[in-house]
């Protein structure tokens, strides 16, 4: 697709809205936790959690999060460790760090009130961006704002059989123009939720249910039998592979040494086992920090997949009677039988659960 190609709407905005809202009134989701007692804060938390995560997964996390942090002030005042702890298992931890940063910015720069009067001001908050800002404004205030999340991109791309990867700037511009055309002036909370529901429940990535879709008679991808062709995938590159050895160092009481990762980068701010690319570095670290520690046979390696690379992890259990490492800043001895409320990377939590089971066996 070239920049000068024009994609025209298939329906008038009024007809598109009529069909979509009639479907939503009959089949849309209206009792989700964040749809009750709507506020910019509650909608914002839900929108961040829902990025790249399904509704069913988000609901229990959202309910626990709101019980602990019922207001943006409560979230802003909390230590990052506690925020990350409540996010453990939800993945994409940069979302949690940005959520915390944004909460502090809302409190310090906007007196605790989200700047929902301005799309630009909302989009400027950490971790939000144009589409999420539009969703927060539309759902929480009813003011007209346009969204273009992954679900909406998929639905509009199929409806118009729009070629090209939606991440390309030219394709994305066409999608924003279509989203702008179809967005109404009224019923913005329902319309916005309906657009997200359409992609999440009918126009799904793998198995779209075209027979139930309110646009099945005009959808170009469906007419061609090419629903799975659209949206076109991002051009593939070879997925890089990295390797790491995680040191599972236990003391005589069964506690395990954890270290806090740097605030940015891989697993930023989370607590992890000491990691080493090579065994020589691991052995040198043990000689320096826990002399006399007994390194045991490695556990089976496993792979943790990130969006941009694959990490092959080899757990290296060891035992020590000396606690010199605990004096280092950013280290703690974690008791799997009495877990501390700290944020843990998913593979670290799984390994700690295994160690805890061994202790209880």
Write the layout of secondary structure elements.
Elements: H1 13-27, H2 40-50, H3 55-68, H4 72-77, H5 80-87, H6 94-110, H7 119-123, H8 129-141, H9 150-160, H10 169-182, H11 188-202, H12 220-223, E1 241-250, E2 256-260, E3 271-272, E4 275-276, H13 279-289, E5 294-295, E6 302-305, E7 310-319, E8 331-334, H14 346-360
Parallel strand pairs: 1-7
Antiparallel strand pairs: 1-4, 2-3, 2-8, 5-7, 6-7
What kind of oligomer do you see?
Answer: single chain
**Rg, nearest Å:** 24 Å
Compute the number of helices: 14
| Integer tally of domains | 2
Which strand-content bin applies to the residues? 5-15%
Q: Number of DSSP strands?
A: 8
Encode the helix/strand succession as letters.
HHHHHHHHHHHHEEEEHEEEEH
**CATH-level-2 architecture of the largest domain:** Orthogonal Bundle
By helix and strand content, what is the structural category? alpha+beta
Mean pLDDT: 92
CATH superfamily grouping of the largest domain: Hypothetical protein, domain 2
CATH topology name of the largest domain, in short, is Endonuclease III, domain 1
Coarse morphology: elongated
Unreliable residue stretches: none
The percent range for helix content is: 40-55%
Q: Major beta sheet, specifics?
A: 5 strands, mixed
Protein name: Adenine DNA glycosylase
GO molecular function: purine-specific mismatch base pair DNA N-glycosylase activity
Cofactor: [4Fe-4S] cluster
Function: Adenine glycosylase active on G-A mispairs. MutY also corrects error-prone DNA synthesis past GO lesions which are due to the oxidatively damaged form of guanine: 7,8-dihydro-8-oxoguanine (8-oxo-dGTP).
